[in-house]
């Protein structure tokens, strides 16, 4: 399913290869059987507008959008489990899911990184891939709403994914729900998070054998050796 692979690349941190191969991507989208014609055109417009920018400007804007705060994080479990210990087990389970389909990771990205997950789905039969999109449709709708609120062109990628999934999620209700949501990427919000994490850090120093510390050690041991072979990694 090349269309999902393309969307994975478009959601990923922009690199020079995207600029160099944009014509091939346009050609592939034009012949996609997975995407509705209108959705394929929307992706072509997105790509054209993205690559009209200087690469460094596009990279800076991407980092500003997805790497500041948690509201638009591309780590799927961030929106489900937050910082709870359930997140570690969920990632281990997802790694096992990848492995059952013969895929191993070779990147430094966590397994719940959305571009990586889309790359995984692109390897599956269409019905299974669509089922995988439906599993994360509420998160896709949430990200779409938040990106639209910030007037980001990236919102269209999530709208297309929801269309491919034929999702039953009511995007209007999601948008209404987050309409009054406070931004978490402002300097004040980021400072507050930093101060909170410092308090937690120093508190943990006095209880090295706490349940949290033990969980972190177990999770690090379970995940660290298992990066093998599906993605270009989106390193930056």
Automatic annotation (TrEMBL):
Entry-linked InterPro entries: DMSO/NO3_reduct_chaperone, NO3_reductase_chaperone_NarJ, TorD-like_sf
UniProt xrefs under SUPFAM superfamilies: TorD-like
Domain of life: Bacteria
Transmembrane segments: none
Record's subcellular location: Cytoplasm
Gene3D superfamilies membership: TorD-like (1.10.3480.10)
GO cellular component terms attached to this protein's record: cytoplasm
A GO MF label: unfolded protein binding
Record note on quaternary structure: Binds specifically to the NarG subunit of the apoenzyme complex at two distinct sites, one interfering with membrane anchoring and another being involved in molybdenum insertion.
Family matches, as PANTHER family: NITRATE REDUCTASE MOLYBDENUM COFACTOR ASSEMBLY CHAPERONE (PTHR43680), NITRATE REDUCTASE MOLYBDENUM COFACTOR ASSEMBLY CHAPERONE NARJ (PTHR43680:SF2)
Name recorded for this polypeptide: Nitrate reductase molybdenum cofactor assembly chaperone NarJ
Organism annotation: Pluralibacter gergoviae
